[in-house]
Amino acid sequence: MHKKDPSTTAQARRNIVVNPPGPASRDLASRLAVIECPEVTCLEDDFPIFWERARGVCVEDVDGNTYLDLTAAFAVAGVGHCHPRVVNAIVRQAPKLIHGMGDVHPTGLKVALAERLTALAPGDLGLPIFSSSGAEAVESARKTCAVATGRQGLVAFTGAYHGLTYGALEATDRDHFRAQFAGQWAGQVHRVPYPYCYRCPLERRSPDCRWACLEPVRALLEDPPDGHDRPGGVLIEPVQGRGGTIVPPPEYLERLRHLCDRFDVLLVFDEVFTGFGRTGAWFAADRFGVVPDVMAVGKSLGGGMPISACLGRPGAMRSWGRSTGEAVHTSTFLGHPLACAAALATLDVLEEERLPARAKTLGETLLRRLEVLQATYPGTVGDVRGVGLMAGLELVEDPVTREPASTLASALVKAGLREGLILLQEGPRGNVIGITPPLVIGSAELEDAITIIGALLDRLAPSPGP
Ligand SMILES: Cc1ncc(COP(=O)(O)O)c(C=O)c1O
Fold it and tell me: Angle 84-93/337-352 helices, nearest 10 degrees?
């Protein structure tokens, strides 16, 4: 049990003292507008706010407004922002050693984190390759498939988000990110549909609908396109995050596992978003009872510090061979001491505060509350779905055509800010409101957030016709 209910320990609650973005945020926005590559930060009259500090579930902006963070800052702050244990680990480590020589003269922290991750990972996954970002962990996973199987091809899914470095981007599926670079790849990624029941033409839960979405994978593995070998890996997010919080139907992943076994192809889970308690278990692999061959993790691993890893089955990871002095795949910050110290503290917090179990219980309440919202606004909330504290509300213009209501979603996120809620739009059309709070969110805070979202829908959603 928790020593304390995190809702009672939250430092601050929603408190808007000046309409956001306030003057200090607007001033910073005008400076940033002329000094940063303009493509990076979207600067509008009513967006964004600039963050000053954060603790637990609460974020304070530079104008003194406080917000409930329903995003965990891209699902990173699983243990909450600036968890005291993580802060202490950083403060203790920083004077000793901030940066080392990760693959040449490593630290004990790298050893300890590798041991800890191996103990926590599903099945016999281990032998990590550390890195700093989620995309890098995906790059390691992609390369591991090629090294272990000798085959370069990869199966990836529609709606996938695996990051924006080249290898990961080839597997990511969104024109917005890819269009300007598409000519630079060798065409080794084969795209198949992600099981997205809400937008599937087959009747939901009809007897054989589930496995129709596996058919393209089977066909591709059995009979690769002309000029291609059988792919070496199938890369999937066990729950799609940025693609719109899409939960595959029961047994889908199990059947995908069987297909990969049958065709001797590595199954890779991108758990960068779903890892470390988010779905109500340590990993989505545990939640769904399916062990992949390779797994990429990142985001919440470091409690806010940038650190990621690729783990795999011993045979796959050992296929890289032994380093003879110049690692074939490494990076300057691999096994970064400060990030490793923060990650070890983060894992302690997750374990001691039993946050994966907490996410499971709270997630069930959250989903029930979202279902009530859907029943109240059937013309606008087309679908609600989630697992653990990873939930989404899909907003539509019309429940029959299911046309994405992107403008409404954007208005809701901005209006949410003015009510003290930080939300993000998800999905290729931005019409899914993602709800992925820190796992330490209190039930009262979660309830408060849902009430506000309801009030915002009430205000912004078109009223039903006569
Ligand atoms: C599933 C998944 N994989 C990979 C990434 C890329 O991580 P990063 O932005 O740290 O490179 C993300 C980021 O959102 C993600 O959600």
Answer: 150
Cis previous bond, 356, omega within 30: no
* Distance (Å, whole) CA 294 – CA 144: 8
Instruction: Tell me which residue has its CA closest to atom 6 in ligand 1.
Output: 163
* Angle (deg, nearest 10), helices 443-460 and 355-376: 20
Per-residue pLDDT tens for 20-59?
999 999 999 999 999 999 999 999 999 999 999 999 999 9
Say if ligand 1 is within 6 A of residue 241 CB.
yes
C-alpha to C-alpha distance for 26 and 11, rounded to whole angstroms:
26
Centre of ligand 1 from the C-alpha of residue 270, in Å:
9
For 442, left (φ over 0), alpha (ψ -120 to 50), or beta? beta
User: Does the beta carbon of 243 sit less than 6 angstroms from any atom of ligand 1?
Assistant: no
CA distances from 39 to 34, 133, 428 (A): 11, 20, 18
The structural domains of the chain, ordered by start, are: 6-69+354-460 (3.90.1150.10), 86-352 (3.40.640.10)
**Element at 54 (helix H, strand E):** strand 51-55
Q: What is the pLDDT of residues 378-428, one digit of tens each?
A: 999 999 999 999 999 999 999 999 999 999 999 999 999 999 999 999 999
- At 287, the amino acid letter reads R
Query: Model's pTM, two decimal places?
Result: 0.96
> Distance between CA 77 and CA 440 in Å, rounded?
9
Residue with tokens 């490494």: 330
